[in-house]
Design brief:
This protein is of the alpha/beta class. It is built from twelve helices and eight strands. Helices cover 52% and strands 16% of the residues. Strand 7 and strand 8 form a beta hairpin. Helix 1 runs parallel beside helix 12, helix 4 runs parallel beside helix 8 and helix 9 packs across helix 10. The longest helix is centred in the first third of the chain and has 27 residues. The N and C termini lie far apart (39 Å).
């Protein structure tokens, strides 16, 4: 009973601290109330089963396209994707390629030059205008690219302008889905990993476009640290599990506290509000 009471008090304290951070975010980020983001949050409210890390890797092995939901402001999000990519590639049963939202497809030629080691990491960062166009931390993203260059068969840029305009965001989903189709033509037997903002991974967003354009590919969505799923697991389990199956084709992993997740985003919003950058604040 004592441990249960302590757990409840800790949850209440966490909820209160989290609520304050989220209020700050809503004040600074008008996109947080957009229909597109509401569709994402409504899509993932409950789960079907607890999974182990081994279960997650087994699900990845059976998928043709693996969509990893990115929380852009959280470096642990990109590092987790890098670990998954490396683990899948080392299995060795099929080629692996990586797609990234954070580079515009118009800059594929620049990315290819970096892939061929014709330009350095700093030169890639400058030429794709990473800080101006993306604005999140470079180091964890660069680590993901290096991992892919070491163990994958290619890296592909998936995004298009305009970023930051929620009225045009579905166009970006369709553009990305068409890029997946191009990648599939280039790599017919590969497992395609992609790191894409989590809100794009609601069933009616990018996954639906992929189903229409590449209907024969099995798509697995892997979410990270989703709020409602975290609290759903916390209510029924003695501790938050490593991972859960939300429903068929969708998993969620937990590796970072919600406080750390939102504190990272608030930090970026505060930096942007000080005039350092004007960026796409959509996740």
């Amino acid at each position: 009973m004592a441990s249960s009471s302590l757990r409840i008090r800790q949850q209440v304290q966490q909820i209160q601290a989290l609520a304050k951070i989220q209020r700050d975010i809503r004040v600074q980020d008008p996109n947080s109330r957009s229909k597109y983001l509401r569709e994402f949050h409504r899509a993932f409210r409950s789960y079907e089963a607890i999974l182990t890390q081994s279960d997650v890797h087994q699900a990845i092995t059976g998928a043709d396209i693996i969509l990893v939901g990115d929380y852009h402001a959280l470096p642990a999000s990109q590092r987790f994707a890098s670990e998954l990519l490396e683990h899948r590639a080392h299995k060795g049963d099929r080629p692996v390629v990586l797609g990234v939202e954070s580079i515009f497809s118009r800059d594929q030629g620049i990315l290819d030059r970096w892939w061929r080691r014709e330009i350095s990491g700093p030169e890639l960062r400058r030429r794709i205008e990473f800080d101006e166009e993306w604005g999140y931390e470079w180091d964890p993203f660069h680590e993901l690219l290096v991992t892919a260059r070491d163990c994958a068969d290619g890296i592909y840029a998936l995004d298009c302008a305009p970023r930051g305009d929620m009225r045009k965001i579905r166009g970006r989903d369709r553009h990305a889905a068409n890029r997946f189709a191009e990648i599939r033509e280039l790599h017919p037997s590969a497992a395609i990993f992609a790191l894409f903002g989590e809100s794009h991974l609601a069933p009616t967003h990018l996954p639906r476009d992929l189903q229409e354009i590449i209907p024969n590919d099995g798509v697995l969505t892997i979410l990270q640290n989703v709020d409602a799923l975290y609290w759903a697991a916390a209510e029924t389990e003695s501790e938050v599990p490593e991972a859960i199956r939300v429903h068929e084709g969708v998993l969620c992993v937990f590796h970072t506290s919600l406080l750390d997740k939102y504190a990272s985003y608030r930090k970026h919003l505060q930096r942007w509000s000080e005039g350092e950058e004007e960026l796409d604040a959509e996740t």
